[in-house]
Amino acid sequence: MANVRSDASFWRRVLAALTNGPRVPAPEPVIIDAPAFVPASAAPSVPWIEPVLPSWFWTLPSSTLLAVLDADGARFAASDSLHEFHWSQLRELALHLVVATPAGPPFSTADFLSRFDPVQLAKLWGGVFDADVPWAGVSGVDRMIAAVIGGRHSMLPCLHAEILNQLRHWAEFPEQLRTAVLTVEPAADPYFSNSDKEI
């Protein structure tokens, strides 16, 4: 009975509601002043929302970035499940849309994570994310974006969560990031040979 409220007015209101008796007015709500709005530029960076990775990572060619970021996708590719095959295809498509844009590969963690917004993604491909505006971007990309954001379980936010978790892990364990890069691209060593102090 420890969770039962001892507030007498609460029980009077409950009894009145159950018996259709006289209504006891609820107490006036307490209004708490909200903190002042902090502009994004002045807000502190939160490491788990925007993990800090070594700067050399964002200088890798887009093909290497794709290979490193898609390393976990191989576990879906070997599956006999049609659902997992479909999921892996959408995952790979979403990753390509985010990394290999005409504007170039992401140049920072913030830039990379911003690309998971369909509006920003459409801009990077030369179009506008609006069903009422004819697509003027790279031909067919509008249908690709629709494929990765449509359905009951949209791939784009799922991939965003997966990759954000991976980036956070690499930010905590940079030696594992270096190993992941060297696994897919052994010739990538020059990218961080001068940046070892970042790791």
Walk me through this protein's architecture.
This protein is mainly α. It has a domain at 55-186. It is 49% helix and 0% strand. The chain is built from 10 helices and no strands. The protein has helices at residues 8-19, 62-69, 74-77, 82-99, 109-114, 118-124, 141-149, 155-172, 174-184, 189-193. Helix 2 (62-69) crosses helix 9. The model is unreliable at 1-5 (pLDDT under 50).
Write out key terms for the chains shown.
199 residues; mainly alpha; 10 helices; 49% helix
Q: What's the short story on this structure?
A:
This protein is an all-alpha fold.
Question: How many strands appear in the DSSP assignment?
Answer: 0
Class by alpha and beta content: mainly alpha
Oligomer: single chain
What kind of sheet is the major sheet? none
* Uncertain residue segments: 1-5
The gyration radius over C-alpha positions equals 25 Å
Q: What does the overall shape look like?
A: globular
Number of helices: 10
Distance N terminus to C terminus?
Answer: 55 Å
Average pLDDT: 78
The helix/strand series, from N terminus to C terminus, equals HHHHHHHHHH
Which range does the strand content fall in?
under 5%
Q: Level of helix content?
A: 40-55%
